Amino acid sequence: MEVVIVPDSAAGGDLIAEAMADLLRRKPDALLGVATGSTPLPVYEALAAKVRAGEVDTSRARICQLDEYVGLPYGHPESYRSVVLREVVEPLGLTDEAFMGPDGTAEDVAAACADYDRALAEAGGVDLQLLGIGTDGHIGFNEPCSSLASRTRIKTLTQQTRQDNARFFSGLDEVPHHVITQGIGTILEARHLVLLATGEAKADAVALAVEGPLSALVPASALQLHPHATVVVDEAAASRLK
Ligand code: F6R
């Protein structure tokens, strides 16, 4: 695992956007896995700026979601489909056809999960998966105690994660209880994992993921198993590393 400490989140965004741009120059139809939440926004902004400046051609790029709320109606502004379309797909000038995600509105959620794992494999696998990290060490929505071999499946959000995400909704009651998330085993199949963490609130989770023992109690520690994992942290998030 490679750990890169950057001065701030903008520098982290620039670094990862350049890695994505470099990948797209080598493989124009690369499949980029994207996370939602606050942390990755500087990455998407920096990559969109490169597109506008003509530094990278994203016309053949493909985007896939990491996770999705269960039960939000299609088109809900906080469904991760809507968020990824708004924050990634549209700024990069891509069409909806370049984008795939799990169906959080499906009646048969288990089938939707299996369909998504199959679709990722049929698409040739994820080339670069961008990850955030929860304060409890989750990646995607694999909360502590998730199996390190898990596949895409439905998970129940912890109260902590629902509270963390309530800022995107009009109140805690609006935050769904369930999500579909790529499993840790699914995530580990991406060719390159890039985790971005910024801010002191993530410092304990980063230290446990990078330097703690491999443990299902800290899902992000699964990155230790991956042959090509990069952890990009600002100085605050790096502050508890030894
Ligand atoms: C969301 C996701 C989550 C977030 C994590 C951190 O797609 O995968 O694991 O990355 O909850 O969220 P922020 O960046 O908002 O602190």
Automatic annotation (TrEMBL):
Keywords: Hydrolase. Its EC number is 3.5.99.6. It is an enzyme of class 3 (hydrolase). The keyword Hydrolase applies. This is Glucosamine-6-phosphate deaminase. It comes from Streptomyces achmelvichensis. The lineage of its organism: Bacteria, Bacillati, Actinomycetota, Actinomycetes, Kitasatosporales. The gene is nagB.
